[in-house]
Amino acid sequence: IGCDRSKNLVDICGEKEFQAFVCDALSVPIRSGSCDACISIAVIHHFSTAERRLATIRELARLLRPGGTALIYVWAMEQEYKNRKSKYLKEKNDSKGKEEEINTDVAQGLLRDQMPDGSSQDSASSDQLLNDSKDKGWHAKPVADSRLPVHTNRTSFHSQDLLVPWHLKSDTKKKAESADTLSFPAGSKESQELSPILHRYYHVFCEGELEAACRSLDCVRVQKNYYDQGNWCVVLEKL
């Protein structure tokens, strides 16, 4: 059974005859202890406070039966780990400096964009920020300036909290009237009007941050903590 905040994505699941419903990850309408396993992929890094991120993990644990397991993936600050770049960061050379566009009309593309190797993700490392975060633990630092930096596609992160541009190709009326007959250079005013740019909030996790949050809960045990292609991953067991 799947759930998502996006009604459009849930509708796509329905068209494919998958079981899915719309809900909030902080309050899932499923009975406590009724799930053998739960999977949370590319979700928790969209919550803007440490308290809400922890509450989401606690909600996952609530759904599990004793002995049940949960897998969590979040976007990593460290896109270059153990002297190896993530697949996503390597793909910068293939794009030849051009910004990626996300086709929201293709369901498989949307789902792939949310996975670890998805084309909507931006990545990298900042050693100084990484060390600061380790020294201060997993709790988010107070924000003195409410303005968030806007990330540049396929470049290094310079902040744990940032906005990621999403370049959309949507079936708007304007596109229907002109896109079939006209071609505009990438980045031009006309192109931007046809492909609107939206900004999505991310909190990228430093090494140990997700694991520490999970270990702070006394109802679960961390079975495994690992790095996978630009993501920090944890496997939990419900006690």
Automatic annotation (TrEMBL):
Residues 132-144 have a biased composition (Basic and acidic residues). GO terms for biological process: tRNA methylation; tRNA wobble uridine modification. Residues 117-131 have a biased composition (Low complexity). SUPFAM superfamilies: S-adenosyl-L-methionine-dependent methyltransferases. InterPro entries: AlkB_tRNA_MeTrf/Diox (IPR051422), Methyltransf_11 (IPR013216), SAM-dependent_MTases_sf (IPR029063). Residues 1-72 form the Methyltransferase type domain. Keywords: Methyltransferase, Transferase. It comes from the Eukaryota. This is ALKB8 protein. It comes from Casuarius casuarius (Southern cassowary).
